Amino acid sequence: MSTPATRTVTDQASNEVVFDGISKAFGPTTVLQNMDLRIGAGELITVLGPSGCGKTTALRILAGFEKPTTGRVLVGGKDITSVTPNRRGIGMVFQAYSLFPNMSVQDNVEYGLRVRKIAAEKRRKTATDMLEMCGLGQFAPRFPHQLSGGQQQRVALARALATQPEVLLLDEPLSALDAIVRVQIREEIRRLQQQLGITTMFVTHDQEEALAIANRVAVLNSGVIEQIDKPREVYQHPSTEFVARFVGSVTEVGVPADYRGGELPVQAPAKDLDTLFVRPEDITLIPDEDGTCTVVSQIYTGERTVVNTTTAVEGLEVTSSVSAAEAADLTPGTRVTPHVMSDAALRVFAHEVRERVAP
Amino acid sequence: MGAVTTEAEKSGQQTSGPGIAVRTSRWLPVIAVALYVTIPVLCSIYYAVFPGGNFSLAAYSVITEDASLAAAASRTFLITGLTIVVLVATLVPALVAVHLWAPKLRPILEILCTLPLVVPPIAIAAGVIALLRWGAQQGRGSVPSQISQFLQNPDLPLILVGTYVVLCLPFTFRSIDAGLRTIPLKAMVEGSAILGSSIWGTIWRVVIPNIRGSMLFSVFFTTALCFGEFSIAATLGQQTIPVWLYDVSSNNFRASIAIAVLLNLATWALLFIATLSADRFSPAGRAARAEHSLQKQKAAAS
Questions:
Q1: For residue range B88-105, what is the model confidence (pLDDT) as tens digits?
Q2: Of A85, A96, A116, which has the smallest distance from its Cβ to B194's Cβ?
Q3: Which domain does B97 fall in, by range?
C-alpha cells in the first residue's frame, strides 16, 4: 500500500466517473432527467444549484444510497450501478459531519481501515498520517463533541481519505460552518484533492464556493445540467438565463437588436427586444442630472462597493459594482446614466423563444 | 406594644419556620420509600442469619449441601444469557431496519411487541403447555414430539428462553426504540456504509455503542425478569431458582429466605456495577479521561 501522497498517475487514469443517462424519480416527482456528466480522473467538479435541483440526489446515486431509475454510473470504466455503497470504495464527507460520537478522533479515522481488516499497527500509522495532513495531530485522543465544527469536518475529511478512495464526494460540507472557517477548509480540501489527485464531486448551493474551488462547475436546475464549464466561463459566459441569474448577480434589460454597447437603454425585457444580462462590474454609472437611474443604496463589500439604482420602469433595477473612489460620487439620490463598457454576460435574441420571468 | 412584638416574632418565625419544615418534609417520601424497600429485606436478612437471636450462617450450608440449587442456578444463568442474546440479536436489527427503511411498519411492530403486556403470563404458560402437549401427543419419535422434548430439555429449557424473550419485548422494544430516536441513525449508517462496513458491522460497532443506555436497560430488565419469573417456569415444571426457592420453602423455609436474600443482594450488586461501568464507558466519561491524559502530556512536555 503506497502512501496517499505518492499515488501514481496510472492509478488516476482509472478514476474517471461517468453518469450515463441518469434519471431519478421519487414517485411522481422527477428529480434528475437523463443526466450525463463526466468527471475526469483527478478532476474536481462542483455541482451547483438551488435547493431541490437534484444535486444531492446525483451525489447520493454516485455514493450508492439511491438507485437511479434509468441510466448507469461508471467509475474507471466499471459499471457500479448495482454495487452497494460499502463495496464502492468511495470516500464521502457529509454536511452534518456524521462522525461516530462513541469513538475518538483516532478511532473515527481508523474505522474504514478496521472494516477492511488492516493490521492495527498499520492503520494507526495511516490514521496518524492523515490527521497530521489535516492539521489535527494533537486532537487524536479527543472525542467529536470536544471539537469545533471546523475541526469535526476536518476529521470527517481525514476519515474519508484514510481508505485511499478512488473518488471523493462532498455533500455541502461547508454550509454548517462560519465564513472564515469555510474558506480555510475550502482551501484545505482543494490542496488535499490536488495533492492526492483524487476525482472529486463537490455539491454546493453557494456559487462563490463553487467557482473558487472547481476545475469545472456544473450548474443544475430542475434535474437538468444547464451548463458545465470552467468557473470563469460559467460566470462570464453563462449559456442560459438560469445560469446568468443563479451564478453571480445580473441586471436584465431589453435592448434593440442593433444595440452594441454604450449607454444602456432603460427598458424592461420585452418580446420584440433582445434581452441583455449584464454583470455589475460591466456597468459604469456616470452621474448625470438627466440620468435614467437614481441611486438608492450602496453596499460596502470591502474591495468593491455595490451600488443599487432604481429606474422609471417598475421592477427594473440596475446594479453596478464600483471602486471605493467612484462610490464617493454615487451617494443615494444621485441621478446617473448606466453605460455598458464591455461585452454583456449573455444576450438572448428576440427571435429565440425562451421562457422569461420578467414581464 | 407587646402585641406588636408578638406579631414581629410570629412573622420572623413564619419566614424561617416553614423553610425548615419544607426542607424536612421533602425527605419524607424518600424516607418512606427507603423504609418500604429496606424493611422487608432487613427482616429477611435478620431471619436468615439470626436464627433464635444468635448470628449463624447455617442456613447457607444449603449451597454446598443441596446439589439441586447449583443446578437451578446455572440453569437460570444460562437461560438469562440466552434470553439476552436472542432478544438483542432479533430486536435491534429489526428496529434499525424499521427505522431506516420501513417507518410505516413501526406501529405494526410496536403493536406486536406490546401484545404480551395484555396477555397474562399464566395464559401464555397455558398456551405453551397446550402446544407442547399437542407435540408430545403426535406419537413417540414423531417430529413434533421430538421438537416438544427438545424444547423442554430440563438441562436447557429453550421453551423458557423463547417465552421470556416474548415477555421482555414490550419493555425492551420501547427502550431501544426511544434510544434509536435520539441518535442520527440514518447519517451514522450511511457514514459507516460508505467507509465499507456492512449493516451488521454498523449495528455492532456504531449503533449499539450509541444506544448504550437502552441496551443496559434491556439487559437488566431481562436479567431481573429471568431471575424472578416463577409462574411460567413452575407451570412448565422447570427447575429455575424461583421454582427451587418455592420447593425448598416447604421443608427448609429459612434456607429459601437465605438464598432469596443472597439473590437480591447479587442483583443489586450487578445493577451497581452496571451503573458504574455505564458511566465509565459513556462518551462523556471517556472524553474526560482523554482530556485528562492530554493535560498530562502537556504538563510532561512543558
A1: 999 999 999 999 999 999
A2: A85
A3: 62-279
